[in-house]
Amino acid sequence: xxxxxxxxxxxxxxxxxxxxxxxxxxxxxxxxxxxxxxxxxxxxxxxxxxxxxxxxxxxxxxxxxxxxxxxxxxxxxxxxxxxxxxxxxxxxxxxxxxxxxxxxxxxxxxxxxxxxxxxxxxxxxxxxxxxxxxxxxxxxxxxxxxxxxxxxxxxxxxxxxxxxxxxxxxxxxxxxxxxxxxxxxxxxxxxxxxxxxxxxxxxxxxxxxxxxxxxxxxxxxxxxxxxxxxxxxxxxxxxxxxxxxxxxxxxxxxxxxxxxxxxxxxxxxxxxxxxxxxxx
Length: 280
Known about the structure:
Layout: H1 2-33, E1 35-38, E2 42-48, E3 51-57, E4 60-63, E5 69-75, E6 79-89, E7 95-106, H2 111-117, H3 122-139, H4 144-149, H5 151-166, E8 171-183, H6 185-235, H7 238-248, H8 269-276
Antiparallel strand pairs: 1-4, 2-3, 2-5, 6-7, 7-8
């Protein structure tokens, strides 16, 4: 009898402990379900029975009603999307294949309407199509050559147009980079031939300038030599000519004289004879 009572008492204790443990476990589950942690660089979209709430949860620990409310986290950090093999046409109807990279971010204060109206897969549903449309629209404004020489202007125009397309989609465009433009073989060959022609024209212009410079230098050299010769001739005076004549004269008088005495008609000869005749 005593043993039976003891067994019954123990059974009641066990049942009580089980109930207490269950209550504690349920309370713990409820307590844990009442809080959610939003990671750094994210925002939380609060759903109440599946409906999107206007309340946005910031980073850190946040309270929610357990079993009634749930949370969807959305990354609001800068993200990058690369798009390759984008086909378009230039203003002069050249075929272009482009590769671009776009840095964007979700507006941190608009994660709720973004999730409600667009959903989590916004990159494939709105960003990629908008990029494709932007590339086609902008490349049609420029010639193929301008797409090469004005790449910075092209990138800026693409960024501005893409931002216009996404501004009501809660997406902010940080940068738009054109990684590469690929053109047809015919266009590449035409560009190469044009560059060669420009280089040849530049070389011809340089050669012509060099020839002109050399010719001018030759003229200046000849002019200098002529002026030097003229100065030298000025220095050869009549006296020098007479002295040279005397030095080469053998002392014999000419046997024939015409109407004029050619010998003594040499300017400066008398003076030269006196200067060269010794004094007794």
